[in-house]
Design a protein that fits this description.
This protein has about 220 residues and is α/β, with parallel strands linked by helices. It has a domain at about 5-155: 4-Layer Sandwich (Purple Acid Phosphatase, chain A, domain 2), CATH 3.60.21. Helix content is about 20%, strand content about 35%. The chain is built from 4 helices and 16 strands. The protein has helices spanning about 40-45, 55-70, 90-100, 115-120, and strands at about 5-10, 10-15, 20-25, 30, 75, 105-110, 130, 135, 140, 150-155, 160-165, 170-180, 185, 195, 205-210, 215. It is globular.
């Protein structure tokens, strides 16, 4: 299977990427939801024994996407930083180094609920921070999955996941893109974010990601 799947949404081509992101070819734009940089650092500050290296892993995945797709603009659909504790020196140093490698890239953050608590990214990262919605073509780019009166919503926040039915231990639960008539939910990009099970509504579509591929669940 290919590392992306081309779909038509609101009369526009989008690519659903196996790296849990969306590429918008007409706008040369990469869309990322719920990176939650510094989440592990925030948990360690609370005394929880969680993995190290998650920020660098996420940044390396971003590097790979930016190398593989023709991007002029990177848009985060909310929750760039996880918490005030995410301003840890190690986390911010890694993000600043990554930004230096992509200094000419336009980056926008649509402020999400965790951003409101964590605070905006440091000014030196040169990230434009805006409230939701941000209108782009036929789409309303948002963090919260709330309907928009005129545009098709692309949102994050929920961290959708889908259960592929099997027997016993053969059941799989994978991150997914969840498409409805007027809204599409992106999976969380961050590797340390968890997920919420999606119960499919009528006339919805689910595209799961796993093992470097994207495919439609039937």
């Amino acid at each position: 299977m290919r590392p992306y799947l081309s779909i038509q949404l609101a009369g526009t081509e989008l690519w659903l990427l196996a790296e849990k992101a969306v590429y918008y070819p007409a706008e040369r734009t990469l869309l990322i939801a719920d990176a939650h940089f510094g989440k592990a650092a925030a948990y360690r500050k609370l005394g929880q024994p969680v993995p190290h290296g998650t920020t660098n892993d996420n940044l390396q995945r971003l590097d790979s996407l930016l190398a593989g797709y023709d991007c002029e603009h990177l848009i985060f659909l909310g929750d760039f930083l996880h918490a005030p504790e995410s301003h840890a020196a190690g986390t911010l140093s890694a993000i600043h180094a990554w930004r230096e490698r992509h200094h000419s890239l336009a980056i926008t953050l649509i402020r999400g609920n965790h951003d409101k608590r964590a605070g905006d990214p440091p000014a030196g990262l040169h990230i434009q921070v805006v409230p939701e919605p941000l209108l782009l073509g036929p789409f309303a780019l948002q963090h919260e999955p709330d309907p928009h009166p005129t545009h098709h919503v692309l949102a994050g926040h929920v961290h959708p996941a889908y259960r592929l039915f099997g027997k016993g231990r053969q059941r799989l639960r994978l991150p997914c893109f969840y498409l409805q008539s007027n809204m599409a939910l992106l999976p969380a990009f961050g590797a340390f974010t968890g997920g919420m099970n999606i119960d499919r509504a009528d006339n919805s579509r689910v595209f799961v990601v796993g093992e470097g591929a994207v495919w439609e669940a039937v």
